[in-house]
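Quick one: structure tokens for this chain, please?
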Amino acid sequence: MGSWQPLSYIDLMFPSIWTKAPAARITITAALLSIASLTSGCESGPIEICDDELDNEGDGAIDCADSDCVPSSNCPDQDSDGFAPLEAGGLDCDDQNAAVHPAAVELCDGIDNDCYQGVDEDAEDATTWYGDYDYDGYGGTDFIERSCSPVQGHVTNVDDCDDYNDRVHPGAEELCDELDNNCNGEVDEGADDRTWYGDADGDGFGTTQFTYQGCSAPDGYVENADDCNDLSALVYPGAPPSCDAADSDCDGLDDPGGGDDDGDGQTECEGDCNDAEPTVHGLDSDGDGLASCDGDCDDSNPLAARLDDDRDCDGVTSAQDCDDLNSAIGDCTHCAGTYQVGSGGTTADLISLSSCLSVGGNLEIGTSALGHLDELGQLTSITGDLIIYGNPNLSDISGLSQLSTVGGNLMIWDNPSLCQSSVVGLQNSLSIGGLSHSAANGPC
């Protein structure tokens, strides 16, 4: 009686082979395996049988989960893409579409091409969208996304040279603002949006008789046209009275002829700075060397405060007064309202805040004249926003070292001389109630 021989896939498919001797059966079986490899597109070697629940090829994939198994009635592939459908235990999520299978490339077509993580995810042909932070229609490189559909706040171009200023973008009108408005690499070229007026007498006030359009004033030109007589340097707005009946201060009225209008014993020509108020004049009534016109708060008392101690005469000296030019504001550590140091502002504009521990509104700083913020050394909190924007020469913000709280937004950007790491250090040290944003500051 012959020995028992195991059945193979070929033996089952071709039972007539069993009529042959064992050696012949082996030869025929090997030949059929070779033919199956050539006709099915499978790799040479063992063929993955789709319905025996075994890993015939030894590649870790069993039956229909193996993309190169021989299709059978138990392992359908209706679109002939080499992958069986999910319902048959395969990986094809749409067996009616040969372009959809796990090895496909994801495209922007509203279809889950690769059967992985949904429709159009990480599509190869997705559009690159650039954030348009200032909403001027031109994007920058700070915020970039790839998507098959438009992204809110993003555009398809990356042509903006300053995405934080809506006055700066390709095609913008060039202005006299020391910025490259039209992003052509030049600053203020061809801009003529400022008018300068000729000042023939050199008193700092011009007239409309001679004008010039340009960003910078030529010699002999000023930015105002307020002079009522450009042939006399003694005549201009705010000039002292001439006592010759002429209009020296350009108020439209002839100057007084020397009369004492308020009866305080002194005329304007003699030094009365307010000839309508008898308690104000240029006479030193208390002999302290200072008259009321000089800032003596009480010219009947030689010990009363003077201008250099209390400029608004509210009884609070300059060192403790939040605003020593306003008698309604006295000694305080909380300064209410919004403070702004804008274009043309200087360090002197921060002096009014030097004694403040807190600001009740917003604090906005944007000028080319500031190099530091040391005058804010006592400031500990700001109720509103702190905005430090467009300060080309600002390189030191250590003056804010005592600041601990910003109730609103913290916005620090476009300060090219300011080290970004110091900005980050300030951000990390603060309790911020709103948004915190910093960009376009200088390298360290």
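The first strand starts at residue 127 and ends at 131.
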